[in-house]
Amino acid sequence: MTDKKAIIFDLGGTLLHLDYPFIAKHLLEHGIEVSEESFFRSVSCVNYKLEHVLKSQPTSTDASRWSIYFQYLLEEFHAPFNYESFINDVLRPRHQSHNLWNYVLPGTTELLKELKKQYRLAMISNSDGRAEEKTIQYNLREYLEFVIDSQFVGVEKPNKKIFEIALNQLQLKPSECFYIGDIYSIDVVGARASGITPVLLNKADNHHYDCLSISKLSDIHSLL
């Protein structure tokens, strides 16, 4: 039984996932068929590849890494077309109109409802000002005490200050909180720097990290 009192979540890649139906549809138009399971394993592999970018460019932001992220993803599928054109003509317009992280995996809201009975739940997201709007749109907001969007607080993960803002709102010690996210150098490094216990959501489950790791969100039960 854990002594944790709160679970703080990342948004994109943790509660809201990359738009598999939209991307898979466009890949299929080019003869590439990708199952949902394979797609999200590839996303986790991209997160791993992104580590060297984060280490070599420590001052980079989510926005500046955007194109690199999707280039890595298309490489995973060996896409036989111009990556830059696909990113700029297909993915970027979709992201601007809908936000590409808009896919709720089955069981997510049920899990949050269950966890809320025993734990305080909140969110920290590196976002563009739409994080809270998205939690409302996809029926996640009612389970969260608050949503911290980097756009509004002027600091991004992995800077420990954004985690300290959450701790201040919760009025809890770092040791009383879990933080669950999907990118090691952003989520684990940042949470750990603030003293919060990090949990990495790693769907590929083929890379070993020096932190608690789960392959699906519901596995959090094994840590509680």
Automatic annotation (TrEMBL):
InterPro entries: HAD-like_hydrolase, HAD-like_sf, HAD-SF_hydro_IA, HAD_sf, PGP-like_dom2
A GO MF term: metal ion binding
Highest taxon, organism lineage: Bacteria
GO biological process: small molecule metabolic process
Residues passing through the membrane, by range: none
Keywords, ordered alphabetically: Hydrolase, Magnesium, Metal-binding
Cofactor (UniProt): Mg(2+)
Gene3D superfamilies: HAD superfamily/HAD-like, Putative phosphatase, domain 2
NCBIfam families the record matches: HAD-SF-IA-v1 (TIGR01549), HAD-SF-IA-v3 (TIGR01509)
Cross-referenced PANTHER family: GLYCERALDEHYDE 3-PHOSPHATE PHOSPHATASE (PTHR46470:SF2), N-ACYLNEURAMINATE-9-PHOSPHATASE (PTHR46470)
Protein name: HAD-superfamily hydrolase, subfamily IA, variant 1
Organism name: Chloroherpeton thalassium (strain ATCC 35110 / GB-78)
